[in-house]
Amino acid sequence: MAGKKQFDVDAAVDAAMIQFWRDGYADTSVDDLSRATGLNRSSIYSSLGAKDTLFLRCLERYAARYGERYDAALSCAASDPVAAVRAFFDVTLDRIADPGLPDGCLIAQSAMAIPVLSPSIAAHARQALGSQRLRLRTALKAGRLTDEDAETFAVHAAAVNQSLAVMSRAGASPAQLRAVVGVTLDALAQALRASRT
């Protein structure tokens, strides 16, 4: 249409996602989003929605993008659950090590911001955290852990995964983060040995 500026919606949502990821929901203004996306305020509202709507889109995109990677990592859980969980953590550690991405995790940040989020976005943040636990639980059950042990390790691994993001934001080194993962993998390997005796 003549007179209308064309732009790549996916690129704009990605830029907004990085902005929210870097500064968090509460500390990101519409002006910040305008600078990040290169769009004026009216274009943001008319094409991407209000701040809450755009944040929800960003949170969904983030959860889908990394969810697919986590699912692929856990795909070998039936034959080697420890390797699968290691690969799961590697997705997070690779994301943390990527210099083109902000430190931390958009979902972890969102969970910490639940008191200032709208009820629908807070529910979506909780759902994203829950999805991580469920995908781990399913993988660990495929690895022949009992229901109880699969749930316990899924909760633990999901918590460790989120703590890696928080620790990275606080300046923990890659070696420190890998050491945290190592403790979890050792405990999982021990539980698997015990369940097979």
Describe the 3D structure.
The chain has one domain (50-195): Tetracycline Repressor, domain 2 (Orthogonal Bundle), CATH 1.10.357.10. The protein is elongated, with a radius of gyration of 19 Å. It is 75% helix and 0% strand. It is an all-alpha fold. Helix 1 (9-23) crosses helix 2 and helix 5 packs antiparallel against helix 9 (174-195). The longest helix has 24 residues, at 119-142. It has nine helices and no strands.
What would you call the shape?
A: elongated
* CATH homologous group name: Tetracycline Repressor, domain 2
Low-confidence stretches: none
Rounded mean pLDDT score: 92
Question: Structural class of the secondary structure composition?
Answer: mainly alpha
Number of distinct beta strands: 0
Order of helices and strands: HHHHHHHHH
Largest sheet, in brief, is:
none
The Rg value, from CA coordinates, equals 19 Å
CATH class: Mainly Alpha
Number of helices: 9
Question: How many structurally independent domains?
Answer: 1
Helical content class: over 70%
Strand content: under 5%
Gap between N and C termini, in Å?
Answer: 70 Å
Q: Any idea of the CATH topology?
A: Tetracycline Repressor, domain 2
Any idea what the CATH architecture is? Answer: Orthogonal Bundle
Keywords: DNA-binding, Transcription, Transcription regulation
InterPro entries: Homeodomain-like_sf, HTH_TetR, Tet_transcr_reg_TetR-rel_C_sf, TetR_C
Pfam families: TetR_C_13 (PF16925), TetR_N (PF00440)
Protein name: TetR/AcrR family transcriptional regulator
